[in-house]
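Quick one:
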Amino acid sequence: MTTEPIDIAKWIEDERLHSTTDDFKLHGCTIGHCIPPKFESYCKIFHPFEVTEDEEDILEPNKDYGQLVYLTISTDNHELKITEQRNDGTVVDILERQQKRLKEYHSKKWDFVTWKSIADKYDLTFHNEINPKTYVDKFQKIGWQRNLNFPSEGYLPRKILTKLLTLLKENSSSDESYIYQKPPHNIWKDNKDCDLVKCHLHEVLEYFDNDFIGYLYSADKSWVVFTDTDLCFTLVGGHKQLIDKIISSELEVLECAATTRVDNYSDKINIKKSDNVKPNFWQKLFGQKR
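Output:
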């Protein structure tokens, strides 16, 4: 594993599309804006939802979601402090709340479930331009599923990354690759402006302490993998044989094009879906009462 001059990765910036539209809601951001639109095939790997048996499978309203708040950012003895003030005057320490939620999350046992399974449960159409906002809009209308945790935003879970690396190795002529990280993907890594590391695929897990974020691409530029800080899915571009293998794997993957949108306004199919919820869904899926 060696550090290389950052200019070697400049082809990604040079060859990907650059947005010129003023109407983001209409045209949005596509895969081609994230990775170069030069590949034969593309796909999205969906970061899984999670469910826990430690909570009831019930819907609860979230009256605070979408309400206007005022943020204050300050430092106290060189420590960052972020507070949120609501309309009723309530002040909340955001970092403290986040730590409390993480502690609660880690106190429970979570199992991966697919986007499609949640879409089926709530009568949504699972397709390659569905996004988290699709589910947020649904739950805001009908209530939020108490035992459900949304997919990881900005990080491909390590378990999924391990399986993806196996697929890449089995379907590449060489396992020489580059890890390319630029702000904000490397913001917590030694305060470096950019990282470009040449390695073999089996070394990728050594580089990332936890989950994957940023670019990973083959030395011959025959494929590229990208996870962005704002996305709940990972994008892959490459030759058709590779993309077909990823799609047919046990990962939740849908085939895409360079023009497939990735932004929160991408889903035009579920915009008029009804609010039907199918009963006894988890009992059917897991063969047990929840």
